[in-house]
Amino acid sequence: MKRRAFLGIGSALLAAGALGGWTLGRSGRQPVLLSARDDADGRHYAVGYRLDGSQLFATPVAERCHDVYAHPHLPLAVFVGRRPSRESYLLDTRDGSLLQVLASPAQRHFYGHGVFHRDGEWFYTTENDTSDAGRGVLGVYRLEGQRLVREAEHSTHGIGPHQLLWMPDGETLVIANGGIRTEADSRAMMNLDAMEPSLVLLRRDGTLVSKEQLPERMNSVRHLAVAADGTVVSGQQYEGDPMDRVPLLAIKRPGQAFQHFPLGEAQRQSMNQYTASLAIHDQLRLLAVTAPRGNKVFVWNLDTAQLREEIQLPDCAGVAAVEHGFVVSSGQGRCRLLDCRGERIRGEPLELPAGLWDNHLRVV
Which helix or strand (DSSP H or E) is residue 233 part of? Predict the structure, then answer.
């Protein structure tokens, strides 16, 4: 017990030293990590932790969540149910109080992602229309007090929409249509021989701006990161032959077409045909990607596509940009802080619970 306590104190001091100037977030407070997490018995939680490891809340929820999105100026966040969830959860981020269980409409289910508009009045989710062969739907909700009320829906112009994010104008959404049809209450993929993945730019009133596809139709466009200059990077999961040599990252720079990111063959192979989360650090011009099947976190220079670092991390999950680099969570191991300021990227463990974190996190 003495040795364990000593090691715990040592790790805490190490993490505190690594945090250094990273510790101030909104309103001068230490940043808060929001994510979904399970416990050893398989129970589901929406959690909030400060980066020093202190817990703000761990709120039990009925269904497993996937991504989380914080309100732009109120202490609220929506933890979005993992596909094919029928529930998402609106929480008070000060203490984790569950304010609303947001139920999906009939013949709809959530795809794990959503975003608040910058004015805070509107929330948008990607949803599946199970009555129409998996037609992608953008659910539109208005925040009324401490409740979200569904107001409308628009087509995502694709099948199986997954992550959505705002472009820099704050009025245009970029949507990753995974191209995979699933039915109600199932994760079974129904159309692998006829997948239609795409990257869509959509005005929030539903007006289609553009729709682009990669050459490989079984390369499901899943997750996104958007830079302040409008560069969009997507991470794919490939549903074809495991031996196919298919790039798993793609990029759309301003004024250019959606195309493969120049990914090294060694890195492509180590991803095992699957990427999870992406994040862009605008000030450092870095792109971070997790590949949990390969137990790898990659960091590239966004402008030159030069690989900066390849980091071993068991079942790496969510990633988010913080002041001096990135925070990365893990389904099996310790969460880490990546200090990217120097010539070499330095990783330090954080005093957060180890393992069982879901694929996404937000630092607010």
Answer: strand 232-238
Q: Kindly write down the DSSP assignment for every residue of 24-43, as one continuous string.
A: --GGGPPPEEEEEEE-TT--
Q: Where in the chain is the domain with CATH 2.130.10.10?
A: 62-261
Instruction: Tell how many helices (H) and how many strands (E) occur in the chain.
Output: 2, 28
3-state secondary structure 155-205: EEEEECEEEEEECCCCCEEEEEECCCCCCCCCCCCCCHHHCCCEEEEEECC
150, pLDDT greater than 70? yes
Q: Cα(45)–Cα(61) distance, rounded to whole angstroms?
A: 5
pTM for the complete prediction? 0.91
Residue type, 340: C
Among the listed residues 215, 158, 169, the one whose alpha carbon sits nearest the alpha carbon of residue 191: 158
pLDDT single digits (tens) 77-90: 999 998 778 899 99
- Reduced to 3 states (helix: H, G, I; strand: E, B; else coil), residue 13 is helix
3-state SS, residue 292: helix
Q: What percent of the chain has pLDDT over 90?
A: 82
Closest CA to 78 of 278, 287, 66, 328: 66
Q: What is the mean pLDDT of the chain?
A: 90
CATH topology of domain 62-261: Methylamine Dehydrogenase; Chain H (2.130.10)
Q: What residue spans of the chain are helical by DSSP H?
A: 2-19, 265-270
Both structure tokens of 162: 């997954």
Hey, what are 80's tokens?
């979005």
Q: Is 20 exposed, middle or buried (0-12, 13-18, 19+ CB in 10 A)?
A: exposed
Distance of alpha carbon 339 from alpha carbon 5, whole angstroms: 26
Longest distance between any two alpha carbons in the chain, whole Å: 63
Residue 153's pLDDT band, with cuts at 50, 70 and 90, is very high
Collapsing DSSP to helix, strand or coil, 296 comes out as strand
